[in-house]
């Protein structure tokens, strides 16, 4: 049966981005009632920051790693295993200061790893994860970053680039814009984001 990986990165349990991911999960479970859902809440269980020990371990061949180096990569191994298992990945990604939240960045730093999710060869860099995996990013934003304000959106291009770098090129976005604006604008933004996430499910 298919597997869905759910990544939550909002500090608020009842956040708009979380409400969107949960709507996706509910629709996905109706479609695949026997499917496996893996949920990782990066605020409740933060990903460790990359350390010097992590860097040394990541660039050491597996057969030559010390016990300490293996331990340094334990969380990374777990996250990458979850990604490898998943057929579909949904990421709750509230926009923080025009980009992604700190918990999500720490998780990304753990999964972008040489020899595990990307390789470096004569032809340059190559993503090692299956490009057939579908990624959906559910994002709540205070404003709407289009037109003259499009340059402020560092979230969408970054996520497309970094996920594509490790092989995940089938990336889609559901955006609940204007969440810090007046109630009418916020409601309209949530309605559109909900329509987008359900369509992607």
From TrEMBL:
Pfam families: Flavodoxin_2. It catalyses: N,N-dimethyl-1,4-phenylenediamine + anthranilate + 2 NAD(+) = 2-(4-dimethylaminophenyl)diazenylbenzoate + 2 NADH + 2 H(+); 2 a quinone + NADH + H(+) = 2 a 1,4-benzosemiquinone + NAD(+). GO terms for molecular function: electron transfer activity; FMN binding; oxidoreductase activity, acting on NAD(P)H as acceptor; oxidoreductase activity, acting on NAD(P)H, quinone or similar compound as acceptor. Homodimer. Binds 1 FMN per subunit. Residues 3-191 form the Flavodoxin-like fold domain. FMN binds at residues 10, 15-17. The keyword DNA-binding does not apply. Keywords: Flavoprotein, FMN, NAD, Oxidoreductase. This is FMN dependent NADH:quinone oxidoreductase. Gene3D superfamilies: 3.40.50.360. Belongs to the azoreductase type 1 family. Quinone reductase that provides resistance to thiol-specific stress caused by electrophilic quinones. It is an enzyme of class 1 (oxidoreductase). It comes from the Bacteria. Its cofactor is FMN. Its EC number is 1.6.5.-, 1.7.1.17.
